[in-house]
Amino acid sequence: MAMSIREAWLALDEDFHHRNHLCSEFAARCGVSDTAFLVLYTLRAYGEGQMQHRIAPLWHVAPQSVNSAVKHLLKLGYLRLEAASGGGRGKALFLTPEGLEFCRGRVDAFLRAEAEILEQLSAEELELYVALSRRLTQAMEAALRPCREEAKDEFAG
């Protein structure tokens, strides 16, 4: 018997939240917050020199959460800030030697695990999974847009 739309959505939602929980649990076992882990993950996955203001929209987290995480990582001695190239007012994020050591032992293990997980899929399955995931996200954005506008108008007074 085929799944209903509701059953399929709930199954996808449960999987999504389970994966998020696994990531949160991993960050906690590393001794950092989810957002601090995302900052370090960003520097390892995308390269050092990332601008702090780019991280919040990349991972859909509050800018203040990223700011707090960066302050905490600075206090731990894992990050250093440098003036942005080109004279912009933002600060670029770089790992200190201590931060690099932390990442090599923890964040890099997470990146390797992600690669191992995705290597279990064929190239065709991987492309299909990414395409379907993006399609669902875009459809959700479009479907919720009227609700978001209605709620914004309702609470604007």
Describe this structure in words.
- The chain has 2 domains: 18-120, Winged helix-like DNA-binding domain superfamily/Winged helix DNA-binding domain (Arc Repressor Mutant, subunit A, Orthogonal Bundle); 122-157.
- The chain has 7 helices and 3 strands, in the order H-H-E-H-H-E-E-H-H-H.
- The protein has helices at 5-29, 34-46, 52-59, 63-76, 97-105, 107-118, 123-156; strands spanning 50-51, 79-83, 91-95.
- Helix 2 (34-46) packs across helix 4 (63-76).
- The chain is globular, with a radius of gyration of 19 Å.
- It comes from Candidatus Akkermansia intestinigallinarum.
List the helices and strands and how they pair.
Blueprint: H1 5-29, H2 34-46, E1 50-51, H3 52-59, H4 63-76, E2 79-83, E3 91-95, H5 97-105, H6 107-118, H7 123-156
Helix pairs in contact: 2-4, 3-4
InterPro entries: HTH_MarR-typ, WH-like_DNA-bd_sf, WH_DNA-bd_sf
Organism: Candidatus Akkermansia intestinigallinarum
GO molecular function, one term: DNA-binding transcription factor activity
